[in-house]
Amino acid sequence: MKKLRTAMIGAGFMGKVHTEAIRRLGNVEVAAIAGVSEEEARGFGAAVGIGVTTGDYRTVLSDASIDAVHICTPNVLHHPIAMAAMQAGKHVLCEKPLTVTAAQAREMVELAKKTGLANCVNHNLRYYPVVQQVRRLIENGELGEILIAQGTYSQDWLLYDTDFNWRLEAKENGPLRAMGDIGSHWMDMVQHLTGLKITALCADLAIFHATRKKPKFAVETFTGKKLSPEDYDPIAVDTDDFGAVLFRLGKRARGAFTVSQMSAGCKNRFQFEIFGTKAGAIWNQERPDELWIGQRNSPNQVLIKDGSLMDPKAAAYADLPGGHGEGYDDAHKQVFRRFYRRVADASAPEDYPTFADGLWGMQLLEKVIESSAKRAWVETA
Ligand code: SOE
Prior knowledge:
The protein is α/β, with parallel strands linked by helices. The protein has helices at 13-23, 38-48, 57-61, 78-87, 102-115, 129-139, 170-173, 178-194, 312-315, 328-344, 355-374; strands spanning 4-9, 28-34, 53-54, 68-71, 91-94, 119-121, 146-154, 198-206, 211-215, 232-236, 242-249, 253-260, 269-276, 279-284, 290-295, 301-304, 378-379. The chain has eleven helices and 17 strands. The protein is globular. The chain starts with a strand and ends with a strand.
């Protein structure tokens, strides 16, 4: 079988995660790496044994042998690179948030439709096996009618004013940081699981460090703990450290969630709690194989991932037997596997988040900005 050839655009934390997960698919080769500089791309390429590297993504777009690209750059570059990639006939898998404005996302959706190319926004969190079990429990009516969705996405890697990353600056990240970076995942998840849309919201965004100390050189995501005082310059922060959102889900359900990158001890604590008229379900990404099921009249349960005991549609996301943990890297692999099925065969199902999902996510994020600025509820549709 001919291997598909893909190029990684972005050689930071996510570029590395994507490269590893793609290689596990077996039928896709990471043929080239484009970094923000030739040096960055070459360094990453040398570490993972990929010899074709460049500091200019246009080089990989002009390579006719490349079928698809992964965009793992700072957010402001998603739109120009994705548009150029589709114009060059490449299938595109892009990190979230899809863009920095809904208008940009709409252009990407339109071009993807016109070209017929496979397009995906990387909401990887949907594809943990027990998360898919929740989706099927809800679909089968086992939670009853959904009434309440609540939770958080909390991290601590930007707690100190000396913690730094490109995401802190709107000029690279776009206007929303915690809400765009991790709140986008939370809103996508709750809608994916319940099949309901967020119909109205009331948001409150906060910047706790108005000024931060910016390192004089680039710092990769999650790696800022090793710097010393002389390595920094002060800068004004223009993106949110924290956000809280009250929302309505569909016609009847209600909910609330927080996002934070300053919650000490929460490393990557994505948690949803969904309650229906019959039962409840709670999942925390820091314990990925465990699903709490709450019951009114019988003992609560903790379901441990085991494909042989799960709904077959959810079991399709578990590649390993029970007791063999499947986590962050594995969920990426599940997204990429389905995306590349579609790259190889345009009639394969679009069973992964598409640019259309990314556009809706951007529309919600713009409503979050509007609501927080007005200090008021806004309708989303
Ligand atoms: C940084 O906050 C980050 O890498 C996010 O960008 C990812 O989407 C999340 O899954 C882990 O944290």
